[in-house]
Design goal:
35% strand, alpha+beta, 2 helices
């Protein structure tokens, strides 16, 4: 068995309202940061997984994302995997 480290990004779907991102975007001009717009806020998750090979590790991380880490109705996810 090998240990892999996954880095997962979970973000709201592009066509859905992101209230946190909208609030942060609205505050940028107050901070003198008028050039920053379109803020979207999500989650970054790291975890370790034990698996026989990279393909099996990817399958486990994908399963974790689908079952627990991301609400697929409202969010999308992407991940990278490397040997730990």
């Amino acid at each position: 068995m090998k240990t892999y480290k996954a880095s997962i990004d979970v973000m709201p779907h592009d066509n859905l309202l992101d209230p946190q991102g909208k609030a942060v975007s609205g505050a940028m001009p107050n901070l003198g940061l008028n050039e920053i717009t379109g803020v979207r806020i999500g989650k970054h998750i790291t975890l370790k997984v034990e698996a026989a090979d990279k393909k099996a590790a990817e399958a486990k991380v994908d399963e974790a994302c689908k079952k627990l880490l991301a609400n697929q109705i409202m969010e999308k996810y992407a991940f990278t995997l490397e040997e730990a």
